[in-house]
TrEMBL record:
<dbReference type="GO" id="GO:0000271">
    <property type="term" value="P:polysaccharide biosynthetic process"/>
</dbReference>
<feature type="region of interest" description="Disordered">
    <location>
        <begin position="450"/>
        <end position="470"/>
    </location>
</feature>
<dbReference type="GO" id="GO:0015774">
    <property type="term" value="P:polysaccharide transport"/>
</dbReference>
<dbReference type="InterPro" id="IPR007833">
    <property type="entry name" value="Capsule_polysaccharide_synth"/>
</dbReference>
<dbReference type="Pfam" id="PF05159">
    <property type="entry name" value="Capsule_synth"/>
</dbReference>
<protein>
    <submittedName>
        <fullName>Capsule biosynthesis protein</fullName>
    </submittedName>
</protein>
Length: 470
């Protein structure tokens, strides 16, 4: 009997579930395309709940079994329980497991004994997106034990790493989708009066911040390019890299004990000042998506004034490419950023100060930060390769939420080799570019009559759920 290969999470989702409920997806049309793929390629019955008009724009109520939830957040647990029961839902799929409604959904699913699946940005981005069961990032159920990955390695279909197909994407298409999404959400907020968003979504604030970001990018371009060249020439000697994360990242809020990115930064600076050997430098790298929202230059300069021996040893950069630092640095300190995985790919020692699913003995440094400055230890190559390939085979899907996802071709009866892929374009040309065109109301949708339980959605037993404009 041959080896039984480990199935991907996407395969498990397909094989184990027939009636699937989608909650909120990433901004853009990915969830609409994913729902269509489930229906057309795998004959699944797909339901969708929209929570604001931004959701509705990208997943119209005219789509079969699509509904608008307009009741309060407090009423959502009971509503979701009833919706699941009446529609015989097998699984819930969402984007991110820390949004308010998704936290509730996970709790409801656990009580009912169903399966909960979460998409997330790729662990090995930019060429991948992530799909996990039960949780993502530090909520991932995958064991944090080296032996798990070494034992699983022989069961993987793909054991040698190969560069995935290049994916078009980047900031611009995502920003266009975000503008369209948030404009719709805010301009039609009366349609969903009780909706609670997971972060600030003020359009004026975003426009202002993105404008500042554009100005700063232009202002820093020459300086950061010169800094990159100096790194490559060896001007800064031995250095550690400290990549900062977005100020409102759930990784910071939920998966760490630091109250803010600034407090994390100050903690690292204090440790560096106290314990780092003389002659070692520290480069603080600002997150490119946070450029228009925060700036830590004053914080860093103030700390250096208070610790004069750090003068000329701590540097703050914005847009210098991360790979430049990974090729020349001696180690990385991170809260729990996926930049840590990029560093590990470059055989760079990594110290994690938050909670991360890759913070595993033999992969990351397990001693104290004070010890890390003096004796950084690189990852065990074979172990990290096993870890990386386990994720490539199971949790990672080649693609970008904002352009194209290359779903593997999966048989409806048995798992197939991933060598054959189905390319799923995530949107029509209009949606790909997310043009700010006039947003028309979706036509009133009649509930599917294919399943008798769907008809009960029109009864008063489920409050404030609508399948057409109000």
């Amino acid at each position: 009997m041959g080896i039984v290969h480990t199935k991907s999470n996407l395969e498990n989702l397909i094989f184990q579930n027939q009636r699937i409920l989608l909650l909120q997806g990433p901004i853009g049309s990915f969830f609409k395309s994913f729902g269509d793929w489930l229906r057309l390629n795998h004959q699944k019955t797909v339901f969708k709940l929209n929570f604001n008009y931004g959701d509705e724009v990208y997943y119209p109520l005219s789509t079969g079994d699509t509904f608008a939830y307009r009741d309060t957040y407090q009423a959502f647990p009971d509503f979701l329980t009833q919706f699941i029961t009446e529609n015989e839902i097998d699984a819930i799929v969402c984007f991110g497991d820390t949004r308010p409604y998704h936290i509730v959904a996970k709790q409801v699913v656990e009580k009912l004994g169903l399966s909960f699946w979460a998409f997330e940005e790729g662990y090995f981005r930019p060429a991948y997106v992530t799909l996990e069961q039960d949780g993502v990032n530090a909520f991932s159920p995958i064991p944090r034990e080296a032996s798990f990955f070494t034992e699983q390695f022989s069961t993987l279909k793909q054991q040698n790493y190969q560069d995935p197909p290049a994916i078009k994407g980047g900031f611009v298409p995502m920003a266009k989708c975000a503008i369209r999404y948030y404009w719709a959400k805010n301009s039609k907020h009366k349609r969903y009066p009780h909706y609670i968003h997971h972060r600030c979504s003020s359009i004026p604030n975003y426009i202002r911040s993105w404008a500042i970001s554009g100005v700063k990018r232009a202002a820093y371009m020459f300086k950061d390019r010169k800094f990159s060249q100096e790194i490559q020439s060896g001007k800064y000697g031995k250095f550690y890299i400290l990549p900062l994360q977005v100020f409102n990242d759930s990784q910071v809020r939920i998966h760490s004990d630091f109250s803010s990115v600034q407090n994390f930064l100050l903690h690292v600076l204090a440790s560096f000042a106290t314990h780092a050997p003389d002659g070692i430098n520290l480069i603080v790298k600002h997150h490119p998506m946070d450029r228009g929202f925060t700036d830590y230059r004053k914080t860093i300069n103030r700390f250096i004034r208070q610790h004069p021996k750090l003068k000329g040893r701590v540097f703050y950069v914005h847009d210098a490419p991360l790979p430049v630092f990974l090729r020349h640095g001696i180690g990385m300190v991170t809260l729990n950023s996926t930049s840590g995985l990029s560093a590990l790919i470059h055989d760079m020692p990594v110290k994690v100060l938050g909670r991360a699913n890759y913070d595993i003995s033999g992969i990351t440094f397990q001693g104290s930060l004070a010890e890390f400055w003096k004796k950084p230890t690189p990852p065990a190559p074979d172990l990290f390769h096993a870890y990386r390939m386990y994720h490539i085979n199971t949790t990672q899907i080649n693609g970008s939420f904002y352009s194209t996802v290359n779903f593997p071709k999966i048989s409806n009866s048995a798992p197939q080799n991933h060598a054959c892929i189905e390319k799923t374009m995530l949107s029509s040309p209009m949606q790909t570019h997310c043009r700010l065109e006039s947003l028309t109301y979706a036509p009133i949708h009649k509930a599917s009559t294919h399943h008798s339980e769907a008809k009960s959605l029109h009864s008063v037993s489920i409050r404030n759920i609508h399948n057409g404009p109000k």
